[in-house]
Amino acid sequence: MRALIGLISGVVFGFGLALSGMMDPKRVRGFLDLFGNWDPTLAFVMGGALIVMAIAWRIQARMHRPVTCENFSLPGTKNIDARLLGGSALFGIGWGLAGLCPGPAIASLAANFVPALVFVVAMVAGMALFKLADR
Amino acid sequence: MILPQFSIAGFPDAQPVEGLIGGLLIGLAGAIMLLGNGRIAGISGLTARTLGLTKGTPWPIAATFVLGLVVGAGLFLGIVGPIEATFAPGWGWLIAGGLITGIGTRLGSGCTSGHGVCGMSRLSPRSLAATATFIAFGVITVTVVNLLGGGW
């Protein structure tokens, strides 16, 4: 059941990414090209996602437990530290260089397999390097 | 796609309608994960978990979600048709971008989905700070690359 929910969530997410135009790295890069030829599409995508998720959080607050398990497992950390900001800054640089964030990169394996795979393999290598270094 | 045609004055290339509807679906996906499995639909974390690079989320949830991303995009291609996509001109961009994205998302515990969509909608201060930071550095990066003549 929990795997089915995971699969449905992923499928809806991937379908939404494809519809939204966010699987086009040039368009995503266009959103970050604020001082050049700016493309506001990503703001509409984020807006749509935030509307639905804000409602979901209101529902979550009234639920005693999620559908498939005993407890919600949600991030509890509150502190804004150097790791959070440094990691986010690095991610922003990577995002700006390739016009891809992890979701569209993985979803793009269905559409543009070779360049998506190059990015995803490099991304996984980065994650593995981080794991080795962060002991 | 039979969607209303709507363009924003001054931004002829933007796709506000597709963007908004796609965004609503992305939010729905996050809601399904949150209310169904009680977890954040954070793609960088779930990818790392699927490959055994972190602990936390039960593996079946992470792996099916990541697989679902590819299936969902594939369904769109099969039902609706091909999408427009222009990738960076050369593997160098993809390898550098991927490596830095991989390190950064693990160090910063999230990306556009976890911090941007799930965290910001929860008004999490950490996620608001993270999202502001990665958008700012994305803008700086694209601007600098353009100034150096590497725009694409």
From TrEMBL, chain A:
Q: What is a single Pfam family found in this protein's UniProt entry?
A: DUF6691
Q: Which InterPro entries match?
A: DUF6691
Q: What is the designated name of this protein?
A: Uncharacterized protein
Automatic annotation (TrEMBL), chain B:
**Highest taxon of source:** Bacteria
The Gene Ontology CC terms held by the record are:
plasma membrane
Q: Does the keyword Cell membrane apply?
A: yes
InterPro entries referenced in this protein's UniProt entry, alphabetically: Sulf_transp_TsuA/YedE
Instruction: Enumerate the UniProt keywords alphabetically.
Output: Cell inner membrane, Cell membrane, Membrane, Transmembrane, Transmembrane helix, Transport
Localization per record: Cell inner membrane
What is the membrane topology listed in the Swiss-Prot or TrEMBL record?
A: Multi-pass membrane protein
Q: Does the keyword Transmembrane apply?
A: yes
Q: Which family does it belong to?
A: Belongs to the TsuA/YedE (TC 9.B.102) family.
Question: Which named protein is this?
Answer: Membrane protein
Q: Which organism is it from?
A: Croceicoccus naphthovorans
